[in-house]
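Hey, I'm writing a tutorial for new members on how sequence and structure tokens pair up, and I'd like a real worked example in the thread rather than a made-up one. If someone can provide the structure for the chain below, I'll link this post from the tutorial.
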Amino acid sequence: MGAVSRPGEPGIPRTANAIAAALAPGRKGPFLEELLGAEAGDAQLAVMDRWHLRAVADSRRTDADRAQAGVLRSGQGGGARPLDDVLAALSGAS
């Protein structure tokens, strides 16, 4: 599948290889399993859309902000929503 480019989109192409490479190690397996389980075409594109935001977030994380990311991920940061919930809402996943 070719990369889908969208105006103003972060620099990770929407390809299976690029998304898998950008994901944190613990997310690669679930992403690839979901992608392989999807039917070719629109279903696979929907999987890549859902995981693209997670890949962008994972690729931008540094050691300096891991503690803050942990707080955000858990939703314990001053009324913040858990990061996975935010990413799911942004990507349209339920």
